[in-house]
Specification:
mainly beta; AttH-like fold; 4 helices
Length: about 375
């Protein structure tokens, strides 16, 4: 049973060694409706903390030429906000550690000038012009403005189990940890982006909330999730369902567990889990992720002793972003990390070799990237 809420996993994890070399990162995505045009648009908001032990009263940006030359590690709160689809963009706002307030223990919160995030809400406003971006490529973002005021309700969780439990968190065993407190979440409020106002309603926000933390990122990097799901057997919306797939190459210390994904499908109240850390389930996974001229394509097959899930998702590049992060050591190995929120596709779900349902998936949060991916097609098999 993976639908176990545990807000202790949403606590800030940047202590001991991870305070010197580590990040902690809360992600949120959702969909809203343009108040004037009724156009639908998908948004994301992230709060990304990095290296508190070297924090100052101003943000230390790792991609600044002077800092790269002197091997100075980044240290800041980075707030990333933006939208997918037409005019997709990511906007960044940075704060030094001495400019912010973080409550480490549950329920967590993060405060900065004009920004706030906790389990139940978030507010903020970013504005950055094109001339500033030209002068500061170390900001790693585009120009524009976005403000938001949102309530959050996290409904269905993907708790990966002991791998992100208290003992492993204390040991800081994995290079990258993951917890999805709200793989199905409800968002309510307003977003204004570049002068256009959007209303966010619980019933069609198709929201998502998770967090990652650790010392570095994974390569390949795979993520797929949605709760805008329709049964192709009945034609009806699946109102109590969500799926989540993530991973690629998890590491325990320096040992790489290649080609591993953590996956869960909460199908109308029933749990179907494909979790490699649960050895008794005998999880087998194969996946192929690649890019064509105009799309990113994911194919994932997973099975246990009794269950099987086949996932096929695609997303148009014109609706996606090359999302930007720097690792706690200041490196930027992910130069081609595709990120979107408008993926579509199907999932076939089986139990004891019988098809339970084929599900049409929309508003799929999706991500794919790997280090040194400079060619037009980049398969991961």
């Amino acid at each position: 049973m993976f639908n176990k809420h545990d807000i202790s996993r949403d606590e800030c994890q940047l202590y001991e060694k991870q305070a010197k070399l580590g990040y902690d990162w809360w992600r949120h995505s959702f969909t809203g409706t343009n108040i004037k045009t009724k156009e639908r648009k998908s948004f994301f908001i992230e709060f990304f903390l990095c290296n508190p032990s070297s924090g100052k009263e101003y943000p230390i940006l790792g991609q600044l030429d002077e800092n790269k030359a002197n091997k100075i590690k980044p240290s800041y709160l980075m707030i990333k906000a933006g939208a997918w689809g037409k005019n997709a963009k990511q906007l960044h706002k940075f704060f030094g550690w001495k400019e912010i307030e973080v409550k480490y223990k549950k329920p967590f919160y993060i405060k900065a000038d004009g920004f706030f995030l906790d389990e139940l809400s978030t507010i903020g406003s970013i504005k950055i012009d094109a001339e500033e971006i030209k002068k500061h490529p170390e900001y790693m973002c585009q120009s524009g403005e976005m403000s938001w005021n949102l309530k959050i309700k996290k409904d269905i969780a993907f708790n990966v189990g002991y791998g992100a439990g208290k003992l492993f968190r204390k040991m800081q065993l994995f290079e990258m940890f993951w917890h999805a407190e709200g793989m199905k979440s409800y968002f309510e409020g307003t977003v204004t982006i570049d002068g256009e106002e959007y209303e966010i309603k619980n019933e069609d926000s198709y929201g998502y909330a998770d967090k990652n933390w650790g010392k570095d990122f994974t390569s390949p990097w795979v993520w797929l999730s949605s709760n805008n799901l329709t049964s192709l057997n009945t034609g009806k919306k699946l109102e109590n369902s969500a799926f989540d797939i993530g991973g690629g190459c998890p590491k325990i210390g320096k040992i790489a567990l290649n080609r591993k994904l953590l996956s869960a499908f909460y199908y109308e109240g029933k749990c179907y889990e494909f979790n490699f850390s649960k050895f008794l389930h005998n999880v087998k996974t194969t996946f192929d992720c690649h890019e064509t001229e105009d799309e990113i394509i994911w194919h994932v097959e997973q099975k246990t002793w009794s269950n099987k899930m086949i996932t096929d998702i695609k997303c148009k590049k014109e609706d996606m972003l090359l999302i930007n992060y720097e690792a706690p050591n200041g490196s930027r190995l992910h130069r081609r990390l595709w990120n979107g929120g408008n993926g579509v596709g199907t999932i076939k779900l089986y139990h004891n070799k019988k098809l339970i349902d084929e599900i049409y998936c929309e508003n799929v949060g999706c991500e794919f990237g790997q280090y040194n991916t400079l060619k037009k097609r980049h398969p991961v098999r």
